[in-house]
Amino acid sequence: MPAVPASVPAVEPSPWRLCVAPMLDWTDRHCRHFHRLLSKHARLYTEMVTTGALLHGDQPRHLDFGDEEHPVALQLGGSEPSDLAACAKLAERWGYDEVNLNCGCPSPRVQRGAFGACLMNEPALVADAVKAMRDAVSLPVTVKHRIGLGKDESYAFVRDFVGTVAAAGCEVFIVHARNAWLEGLSPKENRDIPPLRYEVAHRLKAEFPALTIVVNGGIAGDEAIAAQLAHVDGVMVGRAAYHEPWTLATWDERFFGEPAPAQDRAAVELAMVRYMERQAAAGVPWAHVARHMLGLWNGEAGARRWRQVWSDHRLKGEPAAVVHALAQRPARVAAEQGVPAA
Ligand SMILES: Cc1cc2nc3c(=O)[nH]c(=O)nc-3n(C[C@H](O)[C@H](O)[C@H](O)COP(=O)(O)O)c2cc1C
After folding, report:
1. What is the average pLDDT across 52-62?
2. Minimal CB count within 10 Å: which of 33, 167, 263, 282?
3. In which family does this protein belong, per the annotation (predicted)?
4. 209 alpha carbon to ligand 1 midpoint, in Å?
5. Spatial distance between the Cα atoms of 127 and 4, rounded to a whole number of angstroms
6. Largest Cα–Cα distance in the chain?
7. Does the 265-337 domain belong in CATH 1.20.120?
């Protein structure tokens, strides 16, 4: 029998062991298709979809996804338990593997809707929402949250939030390990400025060992992931996965003890071209797909020029295969000339 790498647990790994974070405008179905070529086992999350958009908007546009995306979770934004339950039913009907409630987004628009991070001030309401969703579907209902609001760093606040929501049946908590400051910071600043306190997520796991605790925030690279997995059940990676997608290519082997699905970057790029061709037949311009893979060759010779070709809007009338051929040229020339990595 082949030796199991030390970082793969002897027992079946948690389905939440490695997750790619929900990211608005980024983790659409094309991005998830791309990530799935790099890891078969990472759990993927949609962008946040609000209950209003789902109940009154174009449901197929928000919910359709490809069979290859599993396991994939729908993230909801909302606070009204009956609306959330109705949306959870839609998620189940569409075939999602999980429904996740956003209790971490600090944007002013979301605050006006009284959901996202401000829900951390209302654990009883979140518990009601979780219960309503669990009563409506048999999918796992999970919560993604912060570790506090404003400058208050009391552990009791997040412990009581998790305890109350867990009592309503939520078994999986994705902990973005920094506070949300609801005043004075933009959403982007709220992902960088409030300090990371991973020890809070670790303490939650120690205090609630039966819960699945997934830590998120500022985690990049296999070593950092492995270090977190010594304390918690799973790691969710956001920006690092998006900007440096090739880092996903080692995950299956290292963290799930399974063969890596991607042969090399060129094979992934070619698979994406074929996908763009299928999407083009359905009316989707290649640029809507290609924008998610611009980091694929980062660190390799010719990467900057390659990126420029795939983001050149003057080429938007050309088929993806033509753009692909053009994009190969700079990489080849750079490699032949020994140009250093960009
Ligand atoms: C462009 C962008 C959009 C995001 N949209 C969402 C979202 O829709 N729902 C959510 O829960 N978090 C959202 N986040 C936050 C991420 O899920 C994650 O919690 C955060 O980026 C911290 O993880 P990271 O340091 O690994 O990126 C977003 C982050 C970014 C960069």
Report:
1. 97
2. 282
3. Belongs to the Dus family. DusA subfamily.
4. 26
5. 40
6. 63
7. yes
Q: Which of 18, 20, 23, 291 to mutate to test the pocket of ligand 1 (most atoms within 8 A of CB)?
A: 23
Query: Does 218 belong to an annotated binding site?
Result: yes
What are the beta bridge partners of residue 176?
A: 216
| Share of residues in the chain with pLDDT > 70 (%) | 93
* 133 is an annotated ligand-binding site residue: no
18-256: CATH topology is TIM Barrel (3.20.20)
Q: Is 134 in the pocket of ligand 1 (CB under 6 A)?
A: no
Residue count of the chain, please give it: 342
The predicted structure's pLDDT at residue 339: 60
Residue with CA nearest ligand 1 atom 23: 217
Whether the CB of 105 sits within 6 Å of ligand 1: yes
For ligand 1, the distance from its centroid to the CA atom of residue 23, given in whole angstroms, is 5
Q: How is the chain split into domains, by residue range?
A: 18-256, 265-337
- Confirm or deny that 15 is annotated as ligand binding: no
Q: First-to-last CA distance in the chain?
A: 41
Note the pTM of the prediction, 2 decimals. Answer: 0.95
Residue 75 marked ligand-binding: yes
| Residue 24 Cβ contacting ligand 1 at under 6 Å | yes
pLDDT of 69-92, one tens digit each? 999 999 999 999 999 999 999 999
List the one residue out of 82, 115, 122 whose CA is nearest residue 101: 115
Which residues participate in catalysis according to the annotation? 105
Q: Which amino acid is at 242?
A: Y
**CA nearest to 273, candidates 37, 71, 11:** 37
Question: What distance in Å separates the CA atoms of residue 109 and residue 111, rounded to the nearest whole number?
Answer: 5
Which sign does the torsion angle of CA 240, 243, 247, 252 carry? positive
Residue 2 structure tokens: 């082949």
CB 107 less than 6 A from any atom of ligand 1 = no
Q: Which H or E element spans position 44?
A: strand 43-50
